């Protein structure tokens, strides 16, 4: 049963929180000529400013190495908008030129002190001429190994902390403090030790409430709806525990390969690229206790408690509860694709994981003895992210085995992407005299139910950062607890032979050993 919206076209969403008006600001984009900025961030900013206009000024300043100047930078951005913005989002000529006028360029190497002084002078000029009010948002769309250099240079140049600015209010002269925020992209460190070191550096320059560690999964409407489903519905929370839930499955499947990212992927693998961040965030939202209120710190407090309740795995537990795999040549959408070791830049003897299956336990009263099964990988049959909650069967079955042969266990499926929605599998009697039961799905698509387009994840997160709302961003202790769990697995893997990296053909759901992992418990994977 699927609910349908009557409107043939989706209505525009709202991005600015009710009652909140964004301050004027300058957004400083480090690595502005790079792939992330050109593909994602700049099109997102163009869409945000054009479709959700506000009376306050936003200027975008590029801080990059290339000798472009304002005009060259503006031309580059407009080309990127033409190339990467969806067809129905493309700007007309007037909107393109209006956006271009907001763009400014500061040429510098990341380790050049004089460059940061030029940046400071440019920002002060924009405060006076464009009215940006001393508010700064620094976005590090840069390789992780440059983060420390940029952060320290911002502090050295006196750009990390806000200044008092004056404004005339109804009661005369008032003092209003401007703000400075910084967004850092994943990966945040490559293990627990490096994450702690990076946290120490950034914490010595910026206060924690200025730091916005971004994970774009947290900007997805369906991830945020996990909290709404659990805590806004009286029928859900009483069932959300070990008494009624048999197990939980989280799948993050990608149909693409590494897409030319061999240099990064060879050092990260699926466990660091997906599990350490995306999966752990989804898991913590799915399993956390109710927060005291909807404030950023209360929600993040509860998420951290979940991660702390996951014990560090011993080498024996890693061998028993994890399966890692690597894709080989296969067929995707009727086309032959190469195996991982044949990808450009990959070591022919690589043991990097492109697939992982994992069983975890959360050691608290709510989730005692409820296994959490995780699967993620590259070159799987389809792109999909889902959370599947399987409930226990009824304590006493009134129907015979023959009558319920077509019935599956009750399952609640939260579809995070790409077909965002929710589905509940229940048992029902087939029409007719016989007592034959079958499973039916009560299904709702967010787009069709509400008739509203879903915000792009980066758009929501950037808007929240401008407003100073850190609810959907990752706090320091979340990062470190997540790395603690991952490190216990990777350190054990380092001592295991290459034969424990199991091959699977591209276009399949992973190696057979992953099936054995869950089948040993009398369960089975539920594929998207």
What does this structure look like?
Its EC number is 1.1.1.49. GO terms for molecular function: glucose-6-phosphate dehydrogenase activity; NADP binding. Catalyzes the oxidation of glucose 6-phosphate to 6-phosphogluconolactone. Belongs to the glucose-6-phosphate dehydrogenase family. 34% of the residues lie in helices and 22% in strands. The protein is an alpha/beta fold and 528 residues long. It folds into two domains: 25-163 and 177-185, 3-Layer(aba) Sandwich (Rossmann fold); 221-453 and 476-520, Dihydrodipicolinate Reductase, domain 2 (2-Layer Sandwich), CATH 3.30.360.10. The strands form four sheets. The protein has a nine-stranded mixed beta sheet with strand order 18-17-16-15-9-14-13-10-19, with helices on both faces. Strands 3-2-1-4-7-8 form a six-stranded parallel beta sheet. A two-stranded antiparallel sheet has the order 5-6. Strand 11 and strand 12 form a beta hairpin. The model is unreliable at 1-7 (pLDDT under 50).
């Amino acid at each position: 049963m699927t609910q349908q919206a009557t409107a043939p076209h989706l209505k525009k969403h709202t991005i600015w929180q009710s009652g909140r008006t964004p301050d004027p600001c300058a957004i400083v984009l480090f690595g502005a000529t790079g792939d992330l900025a050109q593909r994602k961030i700049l099109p997102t900013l163009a869409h945000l400013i054009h479709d959700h206009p506000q009376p306050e000024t936003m200027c975008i300043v590029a801080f990059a190495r290339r000798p472009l100047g304002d005009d060259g930078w503006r031309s580059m951005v407009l080309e990127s908008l033409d190339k990467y913005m969806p067809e129905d989002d493309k700007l007309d000529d007037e909107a393109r030129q209006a956006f271009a006028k907001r763009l400014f360029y500061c040429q510098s190497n990341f380790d050049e002190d004089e460059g940061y002084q030029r940046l400071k002078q440019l920002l002060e000029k924009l405060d006076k001429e464009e009215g940006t009010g001393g508010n700064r948002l620094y976005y590090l769309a840069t390789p992780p190994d440059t983060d420390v250099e940029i952060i320290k240079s911002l502090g050295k140049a006196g750009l990390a902390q806000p200044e008092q600015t004056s404004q005339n209010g109804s009661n005369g002269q008032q003092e209003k403090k401007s703000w400075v925020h910084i967004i850092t992209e994943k990966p945040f460190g490559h293990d627990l030790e490096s994450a702690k070191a990076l946290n120490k550096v950034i914490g010595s320059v910026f206060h924690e409430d200025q730091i916005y560690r971004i994970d774009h999964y947290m900007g997805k409407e369906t991830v945020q709806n996990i909290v709404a489903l659990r805590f806004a519905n009286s029928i859900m929370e009483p069932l959300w525990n070990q008494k009624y839930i048999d197990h939980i499955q989280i799948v993050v499947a990608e149909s693409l390969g590494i897409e030319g990212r061999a240099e990064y992927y060879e050092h990260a693998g699926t466990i660091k690229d997906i599990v350490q961040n995306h999966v752990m965030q989804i898991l913590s939202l799915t399993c956390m206790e109710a927060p005291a209120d909807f404030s950023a710190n209360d929600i993040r407090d509860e998420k951290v408690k979940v991660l702390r309740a996951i014990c560090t795995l011993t080498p024996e537990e890693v061998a028993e509860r994890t399966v890692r795999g690597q894709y080989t040549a296969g067929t995707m959408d009727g086309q032959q694709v190469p195996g991982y070791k044949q990808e450009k830049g990959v070591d022919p003897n690589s043991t990097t994981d492109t697939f992982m299956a994992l069983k975890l336990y959360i050691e608290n009263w709510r989730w005692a003895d409820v296994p959490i099964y995780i699967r993620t990988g590259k070159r799987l049959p389809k792109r999909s992210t889902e959370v599947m909650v399987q409930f226990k069967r009824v304590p006493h079955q009134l129907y015979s085995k023959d009558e319920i042969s077509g019935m599956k266990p009750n399952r609640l499926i939260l579809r995070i992407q790409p077909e965002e929605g929710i589905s509940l599998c229940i048992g029902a009697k087939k029409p007719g005299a016989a007592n034959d039961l079958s499973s039916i799905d009560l299904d709702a698509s967010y787009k069709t139910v509400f008739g509203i387009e879903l915000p792009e994840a980066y758009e929501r997160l950037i808007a929240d950062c401008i407003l100073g709302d850190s609810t959907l961003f990752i706090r320091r202790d979340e990062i470190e607890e997540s790395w603690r769990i991952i490190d216990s697995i990777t350190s054990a893997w380092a001592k295991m032979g290459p034969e424990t990296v199991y091959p699977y053909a591209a276009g399949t759901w992973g190696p057979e050993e992953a099936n054995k992992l869950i089948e040993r418990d009398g369960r089975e994977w539920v594929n998207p």
